[in-house]
Amino acid sequence: MHQHEMSARSVFDGVVFMPSQIKLLEDFKRDMHPDKVNLAGREYVGEHGHTTWLPLVRKIKQQIATDPTLTPEYPPNLGIPEFTRRATELALGKDSPAIVESRVFGVQTVGCTGAVHLGAELLRSCYCSSSSWSGPILLSSPCDDSLAGIFKAAGIEDVQYYRFWDAESNGVCVENMVRDLENAPEQCLVVLFASGHRPTGAELSQEDWKRVAEVMVKRQLFPFFLMSAQGLCSGSLEQDAWPVRHCVSLGLELLCAQSFSYNFGLYGERVGHLLCVLKQNLLAVQSQAEKIVQTLWSCPPMEGARVVATVLSNPAHLVDWQESVKAIAERCMLIRERLRERLRLLGGPWHWDHIIKPGGLYCCFGLNTQQVEFLVQKKHIYLLPNGCLNVSAINSRNLDYVAESIHQALSSKL
Amino acid sequence: MSIFGEVPQAAPVAVFKLTADFREDQNPRKVNLGVGAYRTDEGQPWVLPVVRKVEKMIADDHSLNHEYLPILGLPEFRSSSSKIALGEDSPAIKDNRVGAVQCLGGTGALKIGAEFLRRWYNGTDNTKTPIYVSAPTWENHNAVFSNAGFEDIRPYKYWDAGKRGLDLEGFLGDLESAPDHSIFVLHACAHNPTGTDPTQDQWKQIADVMKRKSLFAFFDSAYQGFASGNLDKDAWAVRYFVSQGFELFCAQSFSKNFGLYNERVGNLTVVAKDQDNLNRVLSQMEKIVRITWSNPPSQGARLVAITLNTPELFAEWKDNVKTMADRVLLMRAQLKEKLKALGTPGTWEHITEQIGMFSFTGLNPKQVEYLVKEKHIYLMASGRINMCGLTTKNIDYVAESIHEAVTTVQ
């Protein structure tokens, strides 16, 4: 038989190179400067500058590793029932009308990204029972740069933005946000952030949330909540989940993507949850979710979800865990206060109250491009565009350097 | 009024429904020959001894952190997994033109591969490139590629029900008539659901046509080691294609051969013409991963990486794999013997000729229904059985029941 030569050309010739999604992190790793500080990371880092283990988590992982009753089986597509049940209760509260009325189902997902991706595909295939519906979806301006990509990949091409972060006030301008929502087409999707916004860390007060929810009801807008760090912002699980619970109490249908990365320190295990609160037709929607899950990852990974389920179902563990979460929230608040104090002492016309107003990991300084570049290139302080940063990476060793550098960035003629 | 008011109920996946029905069945003699997971002779799932060992090592290792893995996954997992598929001495690896993406099981690997191909293969965003899957194939293949946006998913002839073997002529014919650059999903070994693999000579013929017509080979490798008990033997087809100069994808699953069904350990191995092409491909795959699950889970990958990279553990693992494969081979041999001894009409050579977890018994839907309803033996409507569901305790009952089905039900 005639042996054919393979073509010398690659079938991948037309593939364009995509610059790294995490270029900033790679630049930081390569940076050899002794004073370098990474304030652009996603994870919570402790005072020692590393991500921390929750002792409780370590203990439970050891138990799981030696438990002879746990067997290797394919888990259900939608995840461990005990996990989804507890995750749902955590978000909505045990007595939530949605739970009592059996109008909610949950899906264990591969992290919060997995939850958003699944939610996006579910909405795309189910929303308004029209297979040709493709948007719009409203995201906050700014938001995590991968969000738009997730919705577009799911087929929701029409991505628009509502005004959120206001550089003037260094906070959320609720007026603008509400106005943009009021002008949005009826029945469009809106991504809302409970428990802290990435990258700005901005929060809305309960009064603000009431106004937003009112517009959502009036214009029949569909809320897709991202709750990435329940408990880490205020220190209270209930308080951080309030916006979601409030919308449920108003009778709204909604999706909520939850992450257990931050509040359990289980980043690598990819523990996420997609909550679906509906008015009716639960089983059918759930079956569609199953169908989509089968094409994404078939069924989710067990390890992390087992840890979370074990903690959430055990009263003693639950108390232990809530304490850890509170401690993280308190440390973040303490760092914010110290940073504000340092900056205040360094002088200048600026006000720093906006630093301590919200809680949680992220904080935004509203720096311009040149100022951010100055900090990265000249001071080896890595932060996100707009001058947003992860406060947990600030500690007693680098606080002065960071404060002085920010002061310098603002005062220099750049 | 609900936005979701008119969403239709999706049809349940057959194999899960089968398991659910099995669970509800109270009959003490019930047997589950449905879902594809290994079972011991006691009918229990099996945690591989090496897995238990490494699990404990991981739990006791206080130097490990919980941070996000890189988007493409744990580096030592990716490289050692690709070596398992392509061989330690693979020239392609030496040429730095092999890369990988850690994925959520075999499904995840197929998903990322499909999403990439839809965006970048045969033009950009060419959703019309035909995808060929074997007739029959694992039922999820169709859904994964369809969900990735491909519009034209076609069967290629594979199973010859008449002769209970490979329809090579039909297969080669479909390869010939496929539009150039079509994508073919090939089962690396232990074809699911038929258990029928091409011989080495047949693979050579398949490769030859694919080369001539520039057809893309996307291997699905979920049973390496599990099929013959030998890792290298089970990887022969993939390695042959690489040696013939093919650029290809291989979706690897470690669910079965590590018994890690629930930690979702998969690897998409990419073989490109050169390092430059490889890097561009991986860079685009990273973008796809970022918007799908962002970072893969660490537990299973760590476990596999430690095992593959530690000589004593690697040896122990190969041994554990052989234990599973040997039990399957034993059940195959015994089932065939018993059917022959019973004088069950038809030939039963295919039971031992087929390889891996599954056997396409050749039973027709009526006979299958008889087994399920009357004998409480659960198998797929296609006649597919999971050999792992057989044990020394139930094999007589199953053989007798098959005999009954074949002789009384037409």
Automatic annotation (TrEMBL), chain A:
Give the quaternary structure: Homodimer.
- The residue stretches assigned to a coiled coil in this entry are none
Q: Which GO terms describe its biological process?
A: aspartate biosynthetic process
Pfam families the record matches: Aminotran_1_2 (PF00155)
Q: Which cofactor does it need?
A: pyridoxal 5'-phosphate
InterPro entries in the record, alphabetically?
A: Aminotransferase_I/II_large, Asp_trans, PyrdxlP-dep_Trfase, PyrdxlP-dep_Trfase_major, PyrdxlP-dep_Trfase_small
Q: Where is the Aminotransferase class I/classII large domain?
A: 35-406
Gene Ontology, cellular component aspect: cytosol
Q: What is its EC number?
A: 2.6.1.1
Family the entry assigns:
Belongs to the class-I pyridoxal-phosphate-dependent aminotransferase family.
Domain of life the protein comes from: Eukaryota
UniProt-recorded name of the protein: aspartate transaminase
A GO MF annotation of the entry reads: pyridoxal phosphate binding
Q: Which UniProt keywords apply?
A: Aminotransferase, Pyridoxal phosphate, Transferase
Q: Which PANTHER family match?
A: ASPARTATE AMINOTRANSFERASE, ASPARTATE AMINOTRANSFERASE, CYTOPLASMIC 2
Automatic annotation (TrEMBL), chain B:
Q: Provide the Aminotransferase class I/classII large domain boundaries.
A: 29-402
Q: Does the keyword Cytoplasm apply?
A: yes
Report what the protein is called. Aspartate aminotransferase
Superkingdom in the source lineage: Eukaryota
Question: Quaternary state and partners of this protein?
Answer: Homodimer.
One Pfam family hit: Aminotran_1_2
Q: Which GO terms describe its molecular function?
A: L-aspartate:2-oxoglutarate aminotransferase activity; L-cysteine transaminase activity; pyridoxal phosphate binding
- Per the UniProt entry, what is one GO biological process? aspartate biosynthetic process
Q: Which NCBIfam families match?
A: PRK09257.1
- InterPro entries (alphabetical): Aminotransferase_I/II_large, Asp_trans, NHTrfase_class1_PyrdxlP-BS, PyrdxlP-dep_Trfase, PyrdxlP-dep_Trfase_major, PyrdxlP-dep_Trfase_small
A single GO CC term for this protein reads: cytosol
Q: What organism is listed for this UniProt entry? A: Carassius auratus (Goldfish)
Which reactions are catalysed by this chain?
L-cysteine + 2-oxoglutarate = 2-oxo-3-sulfanylpropanoate + L-glutamate; L-aspartate + 2-oxoglutarate = oxaloacetate + L-glutamate; 3-sulfino-L-alanine + 2-oxoglutarate = 3-sulfinopyruvate + L-glutamate; (2S)-2-aminobutanoate + 2-oxoglutarate = 2-oxobutanoate + L-glutamate
